[in-house]
């Protein structure tokens, strides 16, 4: 399975990233994605099962990043992804000064858009993995 996924929310000019993998690889990914962010110590508390982050930089702009240690397609993982996508959507709306408490539809449509895009990408990868496993079993 791939470890990184991308979705650009045109309406808000918001680049959203999803990284699936262990914490140490996530740190390396963030340092590459967000040039100039060298110190990642403590970025993800050890008690977190997943996370949503907003990185702002004068040169590379704002990037919205979701981290999950793994994604196998379990119900808990879909729930965790929805939870982190909600954080991401709220952060995007905050950045563009839209009060999601008053503009409920903005939040729900944005969350649905991000969630649907990442679930589609993850489903494609899960299906590829299943096909590979089936081919190995047949040979």
Helix content: 40-55%
Main sheet characteristics: 4 strands, mixed
H/E series, N to C? EEHEEHH
Distance between the termini: 21 Å
Q: What would the principal axes of the Cα set say about the shape?
A: globular
Strand order of the largest sheet: 1-2-4-3
In round numbers, the mean pLDDT is 91
Radius of gyration: 16 Å
Class per helix and strand makeup: alpha+beta
Assembly state (oligomeric): single chain
Number of strands: 4
The share of residues in extended strands comes to 15-25%
As residue ranges, the low-confidence spans are none
Number of H- or I-type helical stretches: 3
General description of the model:
The protein is of the alpha+beta class and 139 residues long. It is globular and about 55 Å long. The chain contains three helices and four strands, in the order ββαββαα. A four-stranded mixed β-sheet has the order 1-2-4-3. α2 (75-95) runs antiparallel to α3. 20% of the residues are buried. The model has no long low-confidence stretch (mean pLDDT 91). The chain has helices at residues 23-33, 75-95, 104-138; strands at residues 4-9, 14-20, 51-57, 61-68.
Secondary-structure topology with pairs:
Blueprint: E1 4-9, E2 14-20, H1 23-33, E3 51-57, E4 61-68, H2 75-95, H3 104-138
Parallel strand pairs: 2-4
Antiparallel strand pairs: 1-2, 3-4
Helix pairs in contact: 2-3
